[in-house]
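Dear H.,

Thanks for agreeing to be a second pair of eyes. The structure we're designing against is below in token form, covering all 265 positions.
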């Protein structure tokens, strides 16, 4: 089976380029499961319920987020509206599982593809150069112990390449794919690890590449040059959709191929 994972959608330019390409990519590669990271879809900061619904309409089965999940207050009620055993859209919008216990939302979704294959999507967030949260490695162990599906995709939202590579090796043979998000720059290290896990350190953002990781470059440059706080706005220029396409055995969950995708205008 084929799994499409689209990297962090950034702002309206990101939404537009994903809308342009996601349909034909899903059809051309006979994609069975589509996962989209939406943590920056609303102007670069978080995601609103309406934008989440729009991205589900484009064909996404599961949405993931990250450290920006709380940026839009209205998303909290959307997350709270999901029943833990439900399958409706708010339940299929994930936030990192290793945040403090009891917060709104869920870090794992278990579902079935249209073709009848059980799958799970798990989101974790790293701790290196990020806010202090629970150990993502132990969290992965605990969550995987309760997942029955063989096809398991992990979105590991992290800053440090070392931590993301470490998670790939830690979960090799236990999940179908470990795909990095958050740094917004696609890495050229996609591979199948020895025990059958597809890995890429960062899938890259789906957003404006004439920018500094999505933000208007002059605003970020000014901050680097002066150290003064400033307003950040999503850039628009040179949008590209970055994604990873993973092929796996639906019965074992073992990955056989991972391909990087980058599509522009
Ligand atoms: Fe992001
Ligand atoms: Fe992030």
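And this is the sequence the design step returned. I haven't edited it by hand at all.
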């Amino acid at each position: 089976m084929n799994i499409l994972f689209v990297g962090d959608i950034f702002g309206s330019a990101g939404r537009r380029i994903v809308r342009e390409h996601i349909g034909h990519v899903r059809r051309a590669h006979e994609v069975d499961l589509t996962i989209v990271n939406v943590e920056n879809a609303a102007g670069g900061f978080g995601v609103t319920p309406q934008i989440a619904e729009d991205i589900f309409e484009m064909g996404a089965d599961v949405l993931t987020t990250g450290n920006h999940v709380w940026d839009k207050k209205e998303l909290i009620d959307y997350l709270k509206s999901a029943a833990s055993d439900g399958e409706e859209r708010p339940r299929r919008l994930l936030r990192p599982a290793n945040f403090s216990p009891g917060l709104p939302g869920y870090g794992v979704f278990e579902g079935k593809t249209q073709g009848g294959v059980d799958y799970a999507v798990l989101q974790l967030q790293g701790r290196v150069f990020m806010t202090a949260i629970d150990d993502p490695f132990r969290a992965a162990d605990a969550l995987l112990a309760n997942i029955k599906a063989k096809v398991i995709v992990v979105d590991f939202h992290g800053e440090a390449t070392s931590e993301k590579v470490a998670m790939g090796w830690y979960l090799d043979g236990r999940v179908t794919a470990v795909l990095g998000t958050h740094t917004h720059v696609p890495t050229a290290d996609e591979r199948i690890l020895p025990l059958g896990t597809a890995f890429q350190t960062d899938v890259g953002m789906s957003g404006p590449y004439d920018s500094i990781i999505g933000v208007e470059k002059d605003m970020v440059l000014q901050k680097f040059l002066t150290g003064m706080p400033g307003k950040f706005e999503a850039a628009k220029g040179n949008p590209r959709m970055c994604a990873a396409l993973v092929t796996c055995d639906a019965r074992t969950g073992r990955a056989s191929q991972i391909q990087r995708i980058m599509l522009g205008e």
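Two observations from my side: The longest helix spans residues 11-28. Helices lie at 11-28, 49-57, 74-80, 136-144, 161-171, 217-226.

Warmly,
E.
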